[in-house]
Prior knowledge:
The structure holds two protein chains of two kinds.
Chain A: H1 10-39, E1 54-56, E2 63-65, H2 72-75, H3 79-86, H4 88-121, H5 124-138, H6 142-153, H7 158-169, H8 181-205, H9 209-217, H10 222-250, H11 254-259, H12 267-277, H13 281-312
Antiparallel strand pairs in A: 1-2
Chain B: H1 3-29, H2 46-52, H3 55-88, H4 93-103, H5 106-119, H6 126-150, H7 154-162, H8 167-196, H9 199-204, H10 212-221, H11 229-251
Helix pairs in contact in B: 1-11, 2-11, 3-6, 3-8, 3-10, 4-6, 6-8, 7-8, 8-11
Amino acid sequence: xxxxxxxxxxxxxxxxxxxxxxxxxxxxxxxxxxxxxxxxxxxxxxxxxxxxxxxxxxxxxxxxxxxxxxxxxxxxxxxxxxxxxxxxxxxxxxxxxxxxxxxxxxxxxxxxxxxxxxxxxxxxxxxxxxxxxxxxxxxxxxxxxxxxxxxxxxxxxxxxxxxxxxxxxxxxxxxxxxxxxxxxxxxxxxxxxxxxxxxxxxxxxxxxxxxxxxxxxxxxxxxxxxxxxxxxxxxxxxxxxxxxxxxxxxxxxxxxxxxxxxxxxxxxxxxxxxxxxxxxxxxxxxxxxxxxxxxxxxxxxxxxxxxxxxxxx
Amino acid sequence: xxxxxxxxxxxxxxxxxxxxxxxxxxxxxxxxxxxxxxxxxxxxxxxxxxxxxxxxxxxxxxxxxxxxxxxxxxxxxxxxxxxxxxxxxxxxxxxxxxxxxxxxxxxxxxxxxxxxxxxxxxxxxxxxxxxxxxxxxxxxxxxxxxxxxxxxxxxxxxxxxxxxxxxxxxxxxxxxxxxxxxxxxxxxxxxxxxxxxxxxxxxxxxxxxxxxxxxxxxxxxxxxxxxxxxxxxxxxxxxxxxxxxxxxxxxxxxxxxxx
Lengths: 313, 259
């Protein structure tokens, strides 16, 4: 609905103002995404990349379109999708990534809940400071935060030595903390924790404290007050946090790349491998589409669960 | 203090320690007189001296700065327009295009832009990185600007119009000054996101060009190339982005939470 405030021929102004960002995002976001989807149906080129659809004569510079109504079968295929389902390693890798992202989300929730609750209950002045303290590390460079854990979990670090010292007391062989699944999960939790705290805090802040007083008057103990009052009311915030942690964690490639070992690869690492190392772009595109579909499905589930929680309020 | 709240306090402090200790360790070891990031040996500034004589690192820093500044200017203009349009009119396509790049895993945008630039026969480098950065920064600026507009009192604009201001004048004299904190916050966020970006730069950079996060990655990845110089550059980069974000939190306290 255009409000008459700005006058200048409603529609013209609307077009003038929204066109520049619209065109930019169509060209540099929507179009590349469509090209990627199309690439999933093409064949890989002889030297990686994609099999060209247009041929340029090296002498005359004349271009011929190779793909026609008669030849399209030589240029388009469903095979890349078949490959994804044929070999179980790809499905297994997806499941493993879901497991990593799920575990990360769960740990983030457990760490973030008490903290968010505390922030929401604290004084207005301290509250802003406490929130800022959660946000600040998130805005420092992502790679630096991962690198920090390479130092902490490195074999010669104080932390590794302490852990192995304790293990030694129990007669357990020293373990390598870095380049393991453990390191990947720690890294994922560390990087995504603020995404869980913020929506949880935003939700908990709005709770009506008198409900808890009422529950207490009616004889509910601390645990019952949490489980029967606070927790159900906080579900929309929980679901928002789950979506905000799970989705980026699922597509992560730098953390397994730097902190993980050979068997802690995630979807993102496989996608990166297909594009940059083995240069099989069609299959890389198939994997990207599968990741997008997973993300979409999860976002829908989280939105649905979140709205269901809201209706109960 | 009862038992429950003591437990909650304890766990909250533990979480803050978990958030800050790793960063503190990176900073601490940037002053450590040892090649290894393992043991505290003694105080030194040699890694900083080394850093300022490191041509490769300096060139990467320069590239990062150029990309960041261009991204900041273009994304702020486009993002402000988008935020304004999304506030003013009920649009269908624009909000989807603005918000999806923020919501999906970065790697998806990275690989699709890689195919796109290669198909256009574009040499990957500073230009392709900058074009990509602008695409994902528009959304952040748009969200901040829109939330600022939502908090604005429309009647001020109406009053200006009643007093005879042209629409453009009302925008320039009333709306723009009122949403300026939002625009500044958005611009600083775009700059910060650009200089910090790793994933999208990784796919759109090609061989020749390098940014600071890419250079840090390549050194961290190969233990032979790794020394506390990386800690020094990390410390400086952290100081830069943290001060930018502190400014944002001053200018527009709600901007950072708008996500």
